[in-house]
Design brief:
10 strands, Rossmann fold, 6-stranded parallel beta sheet, alpha/beta, 2 domains, homodimer, 3-stranded antiparallel beta sheet, Pantoate--beta-alanine Ligase, Chain: A,domain 2
Chain lengths: ~290, ~290
């Protein structure tokens, strides 16, 4: 089993020992309830580093007052087994008191990007994310930290924060892992009933439909978005929050196909809120067209 | 002369060379217009470290719209000479574009402490300070960073930020350096006319009066504060913003003498705003009383 530590002092002692051996450190911050998506992050870290740290911390400050903090799945034993199988050497499981001791009052905010998309629907979410990720990154100071593309806006905010604050850590974004039918893996998928699970396919189906149409040369984005939104609204149990095509760098809406576009979707399926996304490549920007 | 660098890449190249030699790194962030107070910080860094980095950057984001950013003194040649004489080995002079490149949008805030005292009079000041200091500290990642006690609330915010975000840097606060008549050294003292300079003595005189009265056993803080505030209001050209006795840890007002108290004063002298402070030790907490 990987070594498990709770305090920052114990974490740093382990990291100092690894550094003293000249080891390169990779870091995978998680909220636990781990699945094959997290495993792929730990495996990527394992391939590129000697010492692989995973953290497990359900961060209260990124949940809104009406969100699922208290019922968010906690599956520590299974998480540790997954970490071991995927190649983690060290698992850090801080308590809320370790992360937010009495008197704690410092926050980190990425101003513009945090106000868009998810930020509109979850107004305090990203402030909680960037603050806790900054703490986690500074506790470890890895060579590389790994995040999933599934949370597209999150990884963009973290990249922006790290760049703006001159944090000497490389951020790697790893491809979304999906079920056979396309559903993006998420710790929240376990909330879905059987019929909700069926309906949840509609999110990735909408993304892939748009991806394929744009790859085939479709240049009218607005009717395309309207079409998939209508399909989502028509899917039983699905209530879309948004489906949009934006710049992958600024998250600003794009009106005509170009490079670096991403389609983003958020929807409630029953009472469970899911998000997903897909990078879009129009034919003139595809590797074939460019070569 | 010390080596002067502008870009973060050049800075990090120099620091990597020092680290490769096993050198310990001390850091003194400044806004230039250096005086003997800054020299004392560089000298402290020199005593405790092998490589001493001073930065010179007049940070626009910590000035309010009606404040003195554009006329803040810039004295680079004299600053470099002072850095050399005090023992700096590396001077970093980033431009605004280095610190805030296009797209920059991340801020660091210390929430409660930033709202008090100076924060009431300069609402966006500390957000600018903590954001730029975080950037400076992460660009250098020194073993120790040195700040002056003259900006008491600032050093407390920086300590709080570093503690809350788990930044592995030790913060040292160095005693205020004063003119013979007690005036705390400040880059803004050069704005004072001859008569204003005379009146500016009243700030430190008020602090020392309170310090001496409390050391002599005075326990009634409110009349004491009222007395010195009346004296400040009666001083020609002086307009006090506040004179207050607070906890040195929380900046909350204290009503009876105890350990860890500080008296803080802010006042305009003519059109120049000055601040100063003094730690207070009641007789039962003095070294003699405790021994």
């Amino acid at each position: 089993m990987p070594t498990v530590v709770t305090t920052i002092e114990a974490l740093r002692e382990q990291l100092a020992a690894a550094r003293a051996l000249g080891q390169r450190v990779g870091f995978v911050p998680t909220m636990g309830a781990l699945h094959a998506g997290h495993a792929s992050l730990v495996e990527a870290a394992r391939r590129e580093n000697d010492c692989v740290v995973a953290s497990i911390f359900v961060n209260p400050t990124q949940f809104g007052p009406s969100e699922d903090f208290s019922r968010y799945p906690r599956t520590l034993e299974a998480d540790l087994a997954l970490c071991e199988a995927a190649g983690a050497t060290l698992v850090w499981t801080p308590t809320v008191d370790v992360m937010y001791p009495p008197g704690d009052q410092t926050i980190v905010e990425v101003e513009q990007l945090a106000r868009l998309l998810e930020g509109r629907h979850r107004p305090t979410h990203f402030r909680g994310v960037t603050t806790v990720v900054m703490k986690l990154l500074l506790a470890v100071i890895p060579d590389v930290a790994y995040f999933g593309q599934k949370d597209f806006q999150q990884q963009l905010l973290i990249r922006t924060m790290v760049r703006d604050l001159f944090l000497p850590v490389r951020i790697e974004t790893c491809a979304t892992v999906r079920e056979v039918d396309g559903l993006a893996l998420s710790s929240r998928n376990r909330y879905l009933s059987g019929v909700e699970r069926e309906s949840a396919r509609s999110l990735s189906q909408a993304l892939f439909f748009v991806r394929d149409r744009i790859a085939a040369g479709e240049r009218q984005l607005e009717p395309l978005v309207n079409e998939v939104l209508a399909r989502l609204w028509a899917t039983p149990l699905v209530t879309p929050d948004y489906f949009t095509i934006v710049s992958a760098n600024t998250l600003e809406p794009v009106t005509a196909p170009g490079p670096d576009m991403v389609a983003l979707v958020a929807a409630r399926v029953g009472s469970t809120r899911l998000i997903d996304n897909c990078l879009l490549v129009p034919p003139e920007n595809s590797p074939t067209a460019r070569s």
